[in-house]
Design brief:
The protein is α/β, with parallel strands linked by helices. It contains 18 helices and 11 strands.
Length: 510
């Protein structure tokens, strides 16, 4: 599911089993060039933006500074070539205490954009007063090079950018997987580039960035998938960690099971949304929440055979409708839009759902814009063990049992792993150590009803790092960078400035 809403929660194609040969420790080993420190040359951000939105965003910040850092494509074989990691810095508003490095998640999210938006959201926070913010585009992402490019503009316009075949309602073939892998290799710079997109190598880049920025130890804030980057860094370089905020934390030990947990969470949130909708006189899902899933499928399943056309030759498909709904489930204030979209869809008007997907796609109406989908796929294929067609079919069945609102009712035939034909071997991010020794206090944050990164996974993250868990009662996904929750704002600011986690048992409300 690599269209619109997938960018909000996806952490890569999940595997059914971890590779036994990896053993108990998942920490990446520093490569031979890891200790090479370079001088960063920060200057104008002109030419760094890759989307119209980012161009406008970067131009709006007079204090923004940008730079590039050279990294080896392969730390074990530095002679194989180099890449460039692009970053954006927002200087502290007051006397700087150090640098806070940011990762926005995804995989595929741009850290440059994240630094700019976080600086704006926390404009009056001690965090932006005391810290320079630095957001970097990880390997394969945004302004960094080589960049992942798996799709043409024409494919974006046609809506042909699906990358998680076992989640889609469509039937996929081995040739589909081969075609996709070939496109990614051709567009991204060949197999050496594809091999370079692993999160384990991003962790090595992060340590090189820490050294280049000057501080002896890393102060880090990652959200969603970015918490996996933070955890992997902590496991590899515990002696280099000063402070670490992990917001909307993923389960560090889970493989495929985290996907099932996500869809279980989406179903639970769908049911809460349906109950909220049922209290309204115009609810498209009807007055009985217990029948909302059936009612929903009555409305959307006709799209399986009869997609509804809308501008520029596009069609709203069943998968598009599911993606739009999942995206809206993330924010309670968006729930009424699901009912309105379903009502309009029954009248042959798919505009609202199409707009939701467009909003999350990072693409302009003419097809230009973010290559999130490409980066997400490329990083996924390097981070996760791959499924056989039989495993993918079984996994599709389990997903639909966990989330019947997303079940097209056509069984598991044609489910595949989009990474099946990837031409280079993965560097899986799990298994993760049960306990990482030698760390300072860390702060993990989770909403108790987070549908994308469930709360119990955050509990395991905090336990593995021996750190503190801040529970936030309510629905939603991530809060630390938004500035919208005073309780979380205060806890994060106090922790980052003092490296003292809030007392055990501290809770916030959303």
């Amino acid at each position: 599911m690599s269209t619109s809403t997938a960018r909000l929660f996806r952490f890569g194609s999940a595997a059914l089993v971890a590779a036994a040969a990896l053993g108990a420790c998942a920490a990446p080993a520093p490569g031979p060039q890891q200790n090479a420190t370079q001088q960063l040359q920060f200057g104008s951000c002109g030419g760094y933006a890759k989307t119209a939105a980012d161009e406008k965003l970067f131009a709006a910040g007079a204090a923004y500074q940008c730079a590039r850092m050279t990294v080896p494509l392969d730390y074990d074989h530095p002679e194989a070539g180099t890449g460039q990691i692009a970053m954006l810095r927002v200087p502290a508003r007051g006397r700087s205490q150090g640098t806070l490095v940011l990762n926005s998640g995804g995989p595929g999210g741009t850290g440059m954009n994240f630094a700019a938006t976080t600086a704006a959201a926390l404009a009056h926070s001690p965090v932006t007063e005391r810290f320079d913010l630095v957001g970097f585009d990880p390997r394969g992402v945004g302004a960094s090079t080589p960049a992942a490019r798996c799709f043409t503009t024409q494919q974006y316009l046609a809506g042909d950018t699906r990358t998680e075949f076992f989640f889609s309602a469509r039937s996929w073939s081995a040739e589909d997987a081969r075609r996709l892998a070939g496109q990614c290799a051709a567009g991204s710079g060949g197999e050496p580039a594809l091999k370079s997109f692993a999160s384990r190598d991003t962790v090595l880049d992060l340590d090189r960035l820490r050294a280049a920025l000057g501080p002896e130890k890393l102060t880090f804030l990652g959200q969603s998938y970015g918490t996996r980057i933070g955890a992997l860094y902590a496991a590899a370089f515990p002696q280099h960690v000063r402070a670490m905020v992990l917001d909307g934390a993923v389960d560090p030990q889970a493989g495929a099971e985290r996907r099932l947990a996500q869809y279980t969470g989406f179903q639970a949130t769908f049911e809460k949304m349906a109950a909220d909708c049922a209290a309204r006189p115009d609810c498209a899902l009807g007055p009985d929440p217990a029948r909302a899933t059936d009612r929903f499928q009555t409305i959307v399943r006709p799209l399986l055979d009869r997609p509804v056309p809308y501008g520029n030759g596009r069609q709203l498909t069943y998968d598009d409708a599911i993606n739009a709904v999942v995206g809206a489930l993330y924010h309670k204030e968006s729930w009424p839009g699901i009912s309105k979209g379903l009502t309009e869809l029954q009248s042959g008007n798919p505009a609202r759902f199409a707009q939701i997907n467009q909003l999350y796609s990072g693409r302009e109406p003419d097809g230009r814009g973010s290559d999130f989908d490409s980066a997400n796929l490329a990083i996924t294929c390097m981070d996760e063990q791959r499924m056989s067609p039989e495993q993918a079919a079984g996994f599709r069945d389990r997903i639909h049992r966990a989330a019947p609102f997303a079940d097209p009712g056509r069984g598991s035939a044609g489910a595949r792993d989009a990474c099946e034909a990837w031409p280079v071997a993965p560097k899986p991010t799990y298994p993760f150590p049960d306990r990482v020794a030698g760390l300072p206090p860390t702060l993990t944050i989770s909403l108790t009803d987070d549908p994308a990164t469930p709360y119990d996974g955050a509990e395991r993250m905090a336990r593995a790092l021996g750190g503190r868990l801040l529970a936030v009662d309510g629905d939603g996904h991530t809060l630390a960078s938004s500035g919208t929750n005073a309780c979380v704002n205060d806890a994060v600011a106090a922790y980052l400035t003092t490296v003292q986690a809030p007392p055990a048992g501290t809770r916030c409300s959303s």
